[in-house]
Amino acid sequence: MCGIVGYIGKGQAYPVLINGLNRLEYRGYDSAGVAMIPEKGTLNIYKAAGKVKQLEDSVKNCNIEGHVGIAHTRWATHGAPNKENAHPHCSMSGRLALVHNGIIENYGVLKDKLTEKGYVFSSTTDTEVLVQLIDYIYGAGDMSLVAAVQLALKEVIGAYAIAVIDRDNPDMIVAARKSSPLVIGMAEDGLYLASDATPIVEYTNKVIYLDDEEVACLNMDGTYRIVDLDNADCCHEAQTVAVNIGQLQKGGFPHFMIKEIFDQPECLADCMRGRVLKDMNKIVVSAVIENRDVLLNARRFIIVACGTSWHAGLIGKQLIEDFCRIPVEVEYASEFRYRNPVINEGDVVMAVSQSGETADTLAAIEMAKEKGAFIYGVCNVVGSSIARAADAGSYIHVGPEIGVASTKAFTGQVTVLTMIAMALAKEMGRADDGFMAKVIDELLSLPEKIKEVLAFDEYIKDIARIFTYVHNFIYLGRGYAFPVALEGALKLKEISYIHAEGYPAAEMKHGPIALIDSNMPVVVIATKTHLYDKVVSNVQEIKSRGGRILAVVTKGDTVIKNMADFCIEIPETMECMEPVVASIPLQLLAYHVAANKGLDVDRPRNLAKSVTVE
Ligand code: M6R
Predict the structure, then answer these.
(1) What is the pairing mode between strands 239-240 and 206-209?
(2) Are 351 and 365 in contact (CB under 8 A)?
């Protein structure tokens, strides 16, 4: 979490920094700040509690000049989300300003050491300790800022992406990373720095992703040097990023979330482009072909993920087990990494992550890699840490997802997992031509089917009005629809702050059914699957206890329609692809409930898009 931006060059830094913070606000929005050097010897730091807008308002009459600057939007870890704890933090000497994304775990020990040396702290953050430590080392000997940063970072335990500027040496920014992402952009007018490429792409598409324990020195004349903590040069080829600016804007929608929900037909078409080949009756997933032997010889797959991506993993398990008969376990990355799990050589650990930066997922795959597992990444953000740490992988290619609530990334993950399962099944001789043709037809029809569901937006908006002020919701599903129920409940709670639980429908009678009364809305995914009759019985049990039922049913359904208070009809598809179609009405429901409540849908309280701390 937290977003970092930096700029050094011929232009003015402030517009780049503010623009960049707005793009990175999805990473955290408790407070924000900027630091610029208008001339040698002057360091201007402005901060505000709250969102980037508050910062912009607060600097209206301030000097925002400067060709070098750094900026930060925060998701609080150490210290309350107030102005004092906002970044950039300044060293006691007033010389250095620093922004940081990550956690300095040994900050207490370092702080005691610095306090003994006379340092006084004005915030309760771990970050201030780091800037004071660099300042102490820098002031103690005749050395460059790069050298001081290198020495300081050798004392640090934890995760960091940092950028530092020096009031008395305004011709450079020093940046470094370990476990938190940092990207450098190279353009005609200067050098850019950011937590991901989104603030950079409107200036240049040439970027370098720093690796762990690398330090970069960006100079005013456009040159740069990247070294490790021992000052050995690190070589990087510049990479080209392909993000379209339109994808980073709301395009007439009031929120990114609703735009991203409506983008799904196109995003899934992008996700399948070049992979689902109807003419050849083939699904081509290059990482599956390239790593055929490893994957085919795997004794089992373990999917590690968090949040929505974990829900996609639950669907991936069913797909891979159904199509390939390979056993699959699905683990919360945060539990897996600390559990001493049994991992054997030949196990395939699959990390599913939109951002590719989730700290727990990254740590889980690093641990699995050490134990000999083969790592397969399923990420959206190109060049992200998980994508780079994996032995192989498939991008979901749904474009940048800005809304904190994951929507198009979820359907993209499920689509990619379907393609992977099917490509593997083919390699294993488990998918005959007829089955392949059926899966291909169904996959290719998903964008149109999603459009059909999106056409119910107004109706779902009406339903959302009725349920806007309830306090609890239950979501039910079975089989492939169970993870959809979990995902629907997560969507609702994270953006509308309404308590919601997802359950396998048949589990109700083992306890949760006690919650049912006329105040309890129950969302049931009751489509025509092999479990339909069972779900009908589950719906009956709820109905007879007075629950208010909102059912997602297959077009043409009459049985559930007669029992439910509200029905949303979705087009028929293969059972294994229903998660993609059935999750759309639940996304819309969550969105409209939150929007009705006037909540900040794209930036819900206490959350961040990219959870780069554990
Ligand atoms: O970037 P990742 O997919 O690894 O993120 C995992 C979760 O933090 C994420 O899915 C989170 O649960 C979303 N806010 C859900 O909408």
Answers:
(1) antiparallel
(2) yes
612 lines ligand 1 (CB under 6 A): no
Query: How far away, in angstroms, is 609 Cα from ligand 1 center?
Result: 7
Cα gap 216→174, rounded to integer Å: 6
β-bridge pairing 206-209 and 183-187: antiparallel
* Cα–Cα dist 125/123, whole Å: 6
Rounded Cα distance, 304 and 301, in Å: 10
Q: Which residues participate in catalysis according to the annotation?
A: 2, 609
Q: Is the pLDDT of residue 552 over 90?
A: yes
46 backbone φψ class: left, alpha, beta (φ>0; ψ -120 to 50): beta
pLDDT in tens, 218-242: 999 999 999 999 999 999 999 998 7
Please compute the mean of the pLDDT values over residues 439-452 and round it to a whole number. Answer: 98
Question: 198: which residues sit within 8 A by CB, 6+ positions away?
Answer: 23, 24, 243, 248, 400
Distance CA 428, CA 285 (A): 14
pTM greater than 0.85 (yes/no):
no
Task: Give residue 273's Cα distance to chain centre.
Answer: 23
Q: What is the DSSP code string of 201-220? A: TTT-SEEEEPPTTEEEEEET
Which residues have C-beta within 8 Å of that of residue 369, sequence separation ≥ 6? Answer: 349, 375, 389, 391
SS3 at position 536: helix
Residue 150 Cβ < 6 Å to ligand 1: no
The ligand 1 atom nearest the CA atom of 361: 4
- What tens digit of pLDDT does each residue of 384-403 get? 899 999 999 999 999 889 99
- Please tell me if the CB atom of residue 354 comes closer than 6 angstroms to any atom of ligand 1: yes
Given a contact cutoff of 8 angstroms between Cβ atoms, the answer to whether 69 and 35 are in contact is yes
Number of C-beta neighbours around residue 277 at 10 A: 14
pLDDT tops 80 at residue 243: no
Query: How large is the angle between the packed helices 481-496 and 307-324, nearest 10 degrees?
Result: 170
Q: Which amino acid is it at 593? A: V
Report whether 488 contacts 554 (CB < 8 A). no
Q: Where are the alpha helices (DSSP H) in 398-526?
A: 408-427, 433-454, 457-467, 481-496
* Domains and their CATH numbers in the chain: 3-243 (3.60.20.10), 244-451 (3.40.50.10490), 455-602 (3.40.50.10490)
CA dihedral 257, 259, 263, 264 (to 10 degrees): 30
Are 515 and 522 in contact by the 8 Å Cβ rule? The answer is no
